[in-house]
């Protein structure tokens, strides 16, 4: 079967035309794909593997950019949904399999393992304990000199949210290593000034991990990856608690920032960032 790249492109165009539609959740991944596929195109990539295919929303982006799509998810229903989207666009459904990023052996069965040009993992790293081990598992899926884009949640955004994350960032990260007395005093001071009831605690009882983009670059360089860089996305025009006062203005301003080159501001106004790594050639 031939891949129907024009239908894939039409789906991406539709997504682009509806970015400001409040009936659709904030389209953060649209902007992540833009960064990923610009880089893939520049490097002449021909194949991409997505870790955590979810609802298969990445498939049209990848096919429209002229690349072949493969992927895994550890939830069989997600694999089924993504296979159906891929099949409808003329792709090979067998290139999406059930596997777990934390289990290297399960991923080795993916056709093309070890040869992909680009790897993408959105929504994986905030839930894994051993980042170095999982990154090594993922790096084994690309060719030598292949690139990885991994999404992390941005802990620096906590300085803008004025909620319980603000307190924990200041006390646990910024003041790490300081005396109990100082941290306690600062913690009490901040707690009186922010909304400690937000966001609500996750029903799973497991808080996701938040990472500091300024700290992860040297961490991953030390692990031996090349060209390590950070690309913030998912802008918030203001603290999330203000969003309900004028949701359309909030959406429009946030979308505008994704398109601007807002430089260092993205390190604080974005709730997520992509970490780009290249494996040694
Ligand atoms: C945020 S969603 C990704 C959404 C997807 N990119 C999309 O646009 O539809 C994260 C996905 O990763 C999958 N996932 C989480 N941890 C995983 C793991 N350790 N191995 C494989 N898949 C995982 C989840 O089942 C979920 O479908």
Explain what you see.
- With 281 residues, the protein is an alpha/beta fold.
- It folds into 2 domains: 5-154 and 203-278, Vaccinia Virus protein VP39 (Rossmann fold), CATH 3.40.50.150; 164-191, no CATH class.
- The chain has helices at 5-17, 28-42, 58-64, 76-88, 104-108, 131-139, 158-161, 164-174, 180-191, 213-222, 247-259, 266-269, and strands at 47-51, 68-73, 96-98, 116-121, 142-153, 226-235, 270-278.
- Strands 3-2-1-4-5-7-6 form a 7-stranded mixed sheet, with helices on both faces.
- Bound molecules: S-adenosylmethionine (SAM).
- S-adenosylmethionine (SAM) is lined by residues 29, 51-58, 72-75, 78, 100-102, 122-124, 127.
Instruction: Give the radius of gyration.
Output: 20 Å
Instruction: Examine the coordinates and then state which fold CATH places here, giving the name of the CATH topology of the largest domain.
Output: Rossmann fold
Low-confidence runs (pLDDT<50, min 5 residues)? none
Give helix % range: 40-55%
In which order are the strands of the major sheet placed? 3-2-1-4-5-7-6
> Average pLDDT across residues?
96
Put the structure in a nutshell.
This protein is of the alpha/beta class and 281 residues long. It has a 7-stranded mixed sheet with strand order 3-2-1-4-5-7-6, with helices on both faces.
